[in-house]
Amino acid sequence: MTNREGFDLGQLSASQQEALQQYTDVTGQEIKDAIPLLERSQWNVQIAVSKFFDGEGPDLFAEAQAAQNNIPRAAARVENLHEALIMDVGNRPARPRQPRTEPAPRVVPQSPHVYRSPFLVTLLFAPFRMGYSILSRVLGSILFIFSLLPRSLRARFLSSSIAKGLRRTDGRRLTLPKETAQRFKREFEEEYGPNEVPFFEGGHAQALDTAKRDLKFLLTVLISPEHDDTDSFVRGTLLSSEVVNFMNDPANNIIVWGGNVLDSEAYQVSREYGCTKFPFSCVVCLTPKEGSTRMGIVKRLVGPMTPEAYISGIQNAINKYGPDLNAVRAERAAQEMARTLREQQDSAYERSLALDREKARQKREAAAAAAAAEQQAREKAEAAARLQRLRQQWREWRATTIPSEPDPTIKDAVRLALNMPASSGAGRIVRRFSSQTTLEELYAFVECYDLLKDASKKLTEKPEGYEHHYRFQISSVMPRETFEPSNAVTIGEKMGRGGSLVVEDMPDDDE
């Protein structure tokens, strides 16, 4: 089946054709443009519609897929014919191969234990110690004098054995591995001048751990100042520009550790690594085929040699074991990238979860606030309605307690003209009151005037717990004076035989 644009829709599955139909019905986009967009959206109609209307941003799924595809993989293991012949014909397990390299021991110098002899023994041997100290100083002075002479003259006065014996009496102080490395580097520069050999400033165990962690080659160089070939090897080979540049080349991944066998740590390293001849160098690296954490001695360089032979020996070891280390680096990089990808995914999930929680919290708080406002408004309306009922009940009760207008024959009656507010619609009222009527009763008359017009008075009880407040005030016109609702002051005292009063509404308060 081919559409008018020339696309063969028969190559699409039923679900893809249905997704295409739904997408074109919603967007009206041409099929030639719709199919690539659906492919980029993994045939998800919702995602494709969102991209069509909102614009197509970066494809996070494609980026994650590309990042996962670009993860460096470890190199495949290739067996040669020799390794294949190790297996039996009947597919029986092969005999375990012997390690091709010697294991590289991790040398940690032991701290010297200080032994303190008893006081009596110390006192007994004090003369011997004093004599030994004097003899050592004399021999040291003689050695110092001979050290100022050229090497050729020193050989005439001291034999090799005497010189060696005197050199052993110099008493090198035991220090920490880092201090020992610094001392070796300082003495090396004092003896052979400034140089660019990248000696590791730390103990041999620390250098071995660094090479193991960073997947580098550890070049251990042991020198003996008493050996005749040491000076020529250092000046002609170790300090040559070719060897120095080779050591400093980052592509070779070399860590150089040097030691003087007169130091305790270097002496222990020479014993553990089987050093029988000086100058001595060896290359150590991780051997993953023999063990994931195994460090092996892959090359020994013993005796004097030219710079070319020295570099060639180290380069052969790098060429032989470098691919294995590259495979481990690739595997570690893949693991690190996978871990980073998982952390990013977990972080994105946590952020999304925190955002959803925040939205849910805001929604709950908004709902709680709306419910509280609604409850407060309902309570306020109920309180206002209850107050209105109590106010009406009080007016009905108070209307039954107001006395009737005095008889015209009573001479001390007070005739008042009350100008009622416009809101009441009562207009101007003229009424006679007893001269003993209090101002509070006058206020009650005005409050209940609309109920007094009703001839039938309801029998109502006074509401309990209610305190009535008047929402108006009564004032005289000339001179102007405002009267408060008082039970102690009568209208006869204030108005005499009569007067004109004005009733004014006051603004409502919170009641």
Automatic annotation (TrEMBL):
Pfam families (UniProt xref): UBA_4
Keywords: Coiled coil
Coiled-coil ranges from the UniProt annotation: 327-393
Domain (UAS) ranges: 183-315
Keyword Membrane: no
Any one of the GO BP annotations: ERAD pathway
This protein's record includes keyword Coiled coil: yes
Assigned GO CC terms: endoplasmic reticulum
InterPro entries, per database record: Thioredoxin-like_sf, UAS, UBA-like_sf, Ubiquitin-like_domsf, UBX_domain-protein
GO MF annotation: an example: ubiquitin binding
UniProt-listed PANTHER family: FAS-ASSOCIATED FACTOR 2 (PTHR23322:SF1), FAS-ASSOCIATED PROTEIN (PTHR23322)
Protein name: UAS domain-containing protein
Species, as recorded: Chaetomium thermophilum (strain DSM 1495 / CBS 144.50 / IMI 039719)
